Amino acid sequence: MTLFEWLTDPANWTGSRGIPVQVGFHLLYTVISLAIASAIAIPLGIFIGFTGKGEAIVAGSANALRSLPTLGLLILLFLVLAPVIAGQLVFVVPTIIVLVLLAIPPILTGTYTGIQSADEAAVDAARGMGYTRTQILWRVQMPCALPLLISGLRGSTLQVVSTATVAAYLGLQGLGRYIIDGRAQADFAQMAGGALLVALLALALELLFSVLGKVLVSPGLRRTTRRRRTAPTDTATAALTTLTAAR
Amino acid sequence: MNIDWIWANLQPIGALFLNHIWLTVVPTVIGLVIAIPLGWWAHRSRRGGVVIIGAAGLLYTIPSLALFILLPAILGTRILDPLNIVIALTVYTVALLVRVVSDGLGSVPHDTVAAAEAMGYRGWQRLLLVELPVAVPVIIAGLRVAIVSNVSIVTMAALIGIPQLGTLFTQGFQLRLIVPLITGIVLCVVLAVIFDQVLIRIGHVASPWRRRDVPA
Amino acid sequence: MIRFESVSKVYDDGTTAVDNLNLEVPTGSLLALVGPSGCGKTTSLRMINRLIDATSGTITLDGVDVSSTDRVGLRRKIGYVIQHAGLFPHRTVVDNVAALPRLLGGDRKKTRARALELLELVGLDERFAHRYPWQLSGGQQQRVGVARALATDPPFLLMDEPFSAVDPIVRAQLQDEFLRLQGEIGKTIVMVTHDIDEALKLGDQVAVLRTGGVLAQFGTPLELLTRPVDTFVADFVGGARGYRALGFEQLSEETALTPHTPVKLDERVSDRGWVVVVDDKGRPLGWVDGGNARDASAATLHTTSRFLPLTASARELLDGALAGPGGTLGIVDADGVFVGVLSASSVVEAVQGAAA
């Protein structure tokens, strides 16, 4: 069977193991993990960006975290937690925990570097005009942080989609099933089909975020980096921290 | 915890470690070599920049496991061929570094470039003798991110049966043993730290005029 | 009125930024704080709206001690303009201007309408209203900054190097327009600048500070030019002081003009020297060189020389005469009608006569 035949076989599109169901599982894990990670990382990022506290720790651990192999982490957590969790949850809980852990750093760095990237002159002007600290945060710093916050979310999403694929190795549902099962059955068409679907899903989510950015971010912010030439290394690394580690 | 397992398997672990090193280093180096001219082009031509940086961003979104499997279909290689891993990681490295090289060249002060031009440097002389050296700190920063990520991405290849440190993870899973997992994770982190430190040193040697304050 | 009484600022590390400063800015006037970098001029400014707190001494606004008022409430009574304008990058121009009134609960439509009026007042074309800050030039951004500071019609205005980030030509233009604007709105203003010419041009009073935050001299621009207290102030004010001081002096209304008979367009020129050409109502059009031309026509008319009223500053009159044809300047009355000419030497005589 070829990749094309596998993709067009109606049998693969129906039933409890069909493509729509697996896409649904994949998205479900992604959404749950991102929601939990955001609930932790965004407030923490706001705190760090606003107070400047803990920045050194976060910046330092970001690169270290990147070197942690997600596959190893996933299996380790599974082996540790497996004895204490029953039923289908035995796959889901360790996976979600790992996905959340992986999703936090990009969102966190995106949020706090975003807040810090707000034009200092604009913040000073707001202070001088009589904005309170909270008003400055919500009306000046947060809108300016939005582009980097969204790119942090984007980085996390790719990371999560990618790692959720790997989690099929443990027995989890999702698009990774086709890859892992296909490998076990030496069914190349199924493997390649799964891989293609994951790649397409990642691209679709990427597209979604770029649309989200266009809708949410003020057009006034799309060019601000051009105006002020701050330390180029810092801007490049800030962009990288949110962009990378997407696998 | 069963430490004996490590002693009993010292030799295979060493082999996996060496495999991991070349699977990481080779694509990173090739990726850098490819990324420099591409990044230069992206920096020089506005349209080229949009196309290249955009394409790089898209390539980077493809999950590694998917790319490992799709490459044989595209290239006609065997699925178990380590070449797939090398090519996939090269793709990621290029995708990451094109942007970095372009940004790095963009960080060279206009005055410096104009001065080199006024002194009569040709285009390629200016790139090799002025712009690239000045962009070194930015490129090194990107390279550090690339190699550390690559150390982690390589482990995914264990799922399709390419031996390297990730193999310890699949073995640990099959044997329900924690020791191989911890061994693998620790070795990966150690390897990443070594690569990172080596690059920091190279960066210092390659940009002696710069004070030691390269951010992570 | 803004008043500084024995105000000092000492930072935690022991450095004194401002040392025992005493100043008074009458309502409706502009004080320029000027001095080299590190003289504490910006610190002094930022103590007024309590972006920095004074270590000792009191600053009062219309008799009210600022340290006794709530920071946020205080700042909302004081307009604030800074060097790079500090516009909100995510807001359009009109929304930047309307930001504070909106924050204070103003109606969306009304605040926008008012913002558009303010933009017109600062001389920004309406088509810029819905652009974002990055789409504007530095000078345009600065105009928006001024409009934003005026949005709640505060009685006081603080300006920190407002025009120093733009090129000299735009700067001069912004300064001229700002003088006109201040003539209309009459705010009580403190402005920080490192540019002594800007201070002398815009300030009703100028305070020169020296490094360490010590007041070197406080006076009108003319006082600084004619009677600097020491060499520091003299050096800081710079060269050509006597000539620049003429910019703040006027000739007596009785200064005698040299009679001069003008010709009209298309008339014959009988004189061999330079002759003023006027229109039917007697308003000057330019000069014609009788040595070269027989007729006063559009082709022979020289239009580069200015015609000034006697009320212009002595500096402008002297400069006009020195640059004028044959060393003379054409003088017009309040209606713009040509009344006679003045030579450079007669301007100098008139100035000396006034000084004697």
UniProtKB/TrEMBL annotation, chain A:
One GO BP annotation of this record: transmembrane transport
Pfam families: BPD_transp_1
Swiss-Prot/TrEMBL keywords: Membrane, Transmembrane, Transmembrane helix, Transport
SUPFAM superfamilies assigned to the protein according to its UniProt record, in alphabetical order: MetI-like
Main localization category: membrane
Chain ranges passing through the membrane: 27-50, 71-104, 160-180, 192-217
Gene3D superfamilies: MetI-like (1.10.3720.10)
Family statement: Belongs to the binding-protein-dependent transport system permease family.
Protein name, entry field: ABC transporter permease subunit
UniProtKB/TrEMBL annotation, chain C:
Enzyme Commission (EC) number: 7.6.2.9
ABC transporter domain residues: 2-237
InterPro entries per the UniProt record, alphabetical: AAA+_ATPase, ABC_transporter-like_ATP-bd, ABC_transporter-like_CS, CBS_dom_sf, P-loop_NTPase
Superkingdom to which the source organism belongs: Bacteria
Keyword Ligase set for record: no
Gene Ontology molecular function, alphabetical: ABC-type quaternary ammonium compound transporting activity; ATP binding; ATP hydrolysis activity
Pfam short name (any one): ABC_tran
The keyword Ubl conjugation is annotated on this UniProt entry: no
Keyword annotations of the record: ATP-binding, Nucleotide-binding, Transport
Stated family: Belongs to the ABC transporter superfamily.
Name of the protein in question: ABC-type quaternary amine transporter
Organism: Agromyces albus
